[in-house]
Amino acid sequence: MERSEKIDTKKPLRIALAGNPNSGKTTLFNALTGAHHKVGNYPGVTVEKREGVRVRSDRQYHFIDLPGTYSLTAYSLDEVVARDFILEEKPDIIVDVLDSTNLERNLYLCLQFQELGVPVIGALNMSDEAEARGIHIDEVNLGKTLGIPLVKTVGPKGSGTEALLDCIDSVTAGGLAGNKTGIGHSVSYGEELELRLEELQKRISGDAVFTAKYPERWLAVKLLEKDANAYHRLKEHSHGAEIEAAAREATVWIDKHFGKDSEIIVTEQRYGYIRGAVKESITIIKKADFSFTEAADKIIMNRFLSLPIFVLTLWSVFQITFLLGEYPMAALEIFFTFLSGVLESVIPEGLIRSLVVDGIIGGVGGVFSFVPLIVILFFLLSILEDVGYMSRAAFATDKLLHTFGLHGQSIFPMMLGFGCSVPAIMASRTLKSNRDRIITVLITPFMSCGAKLPVHVLLAAAFFPNHAASVVMLIYAIGVILSLISALVLKHTVLRGDPTPFVMELPPYRAPTLRGVLWHVWEKTWQYVKKAGTVILASAILIWAITSFPSYQATEDEAHPDAAALEQSYAGRLGKFIEPVFRPLGFDWKIAVASTTGFAAKEVIVSTLGILYKVGAEETEESEGLRTAISQDAHMRPLIALVLMLFTLIIPPCFAALATMKAEIGAKWVGFEIAFLLAGGWVIGCIVYQVGTLLGF
Question: Are 254 and 262 in contact (CB under 8 A)?
Answer without folding.
Answer: yes
